[in-house]
Amino acid sequence: MDDEQILFLSDIFPTGYMAAENAGIREGDTVAIWGCGPVGQFAIQSAWMLGAGRVIAIDKVPERLAMARDHGKAETLDFSNVNIYDALMAMTNGRGPDSCIDCVGTEADASATPDSMLDKVKASVYLGTDRPHVLREAIYCCRKGGTIS
What we know:
Shape: globular
Distance between the termini: 31 Å
Number of helices: 7
Largest sheet: 5 strands, parallel
Radius of gyration: 16 Å
Order of helices and strands: HHEHEHEHEHHE
Helix content: 40-55%
CATH class: Alpha Beta
Strand content: 5-15%
Mean pLDDT: 88
């Protein structure tokens, strides 16, 4: 193996694997993963390794979604043109995923959501809040008694 290949084993793969492991994935579980960058791609692979029966990847970058579909064998949702909660409920017969994993890192694209705008107003008058949009969405979407990682 060359240095480029080994580099992924020392940082990005363990991060994605640990996110999947912390999600408590059981055999046959449905897992939703927000973020299809490098960490998300490894979380997708790790979810399968840990026994997931279904993996749903969420992002808006077409190339990342294609990689999740083609290499990760995940179902994909583009959050720029679909309501994630409604889509996940439809895909899971109203139950929600068993595990939800946040692999986003930073949230550059949540700035136009109503919650984000309200947070900005609160912060501007020192009623500050720092509520990550993806984490909040994952909590909302996950089935009752499910796991967030």
